[in-house]
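Tutorial, part two.
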Amino acid sequence: MRAEKVRSSTTSARKTSSSKAVKAAQAQPKTDPLYVIFEQHLFHFQESDSDRKTFILAIVSDYLSYLRKKNITVPRSLEQPIVEELATQVNVMLVKKIYGCLSIADYQNNLPGSVKKRARTRYSKLAVG
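Running the prediction step on this input gives:
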């Protein structure tokens, strides 16, 4: 009888600790690396003479570099369609993010410093560049 109580308490302790880990993982949703890279470029944009296409391609390039560092390969035959799809997604993110602002610089002027710092911290955790 005593051995059964010890086993059941050990089993319930394992269930409790594993359920806590699951709840903790669910509480902190993982942010998409593409979005993290996008925010980093947007909040720390420096080239005022750069056009939208160049800005978007820089983000896509950083994202592909990130994928390579994670040993995720993109077949050459699919690279161009993937780049086009990613560029479309980044363009949509850009339009939604700076809605109501005339330029990226205009958007940056209205940002608090804490937002820029948080974006830089997330970006550094990705170890992209």
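The first helix runs from residue 2 to 27. In part three we will examine how such features are distributed along the chain.
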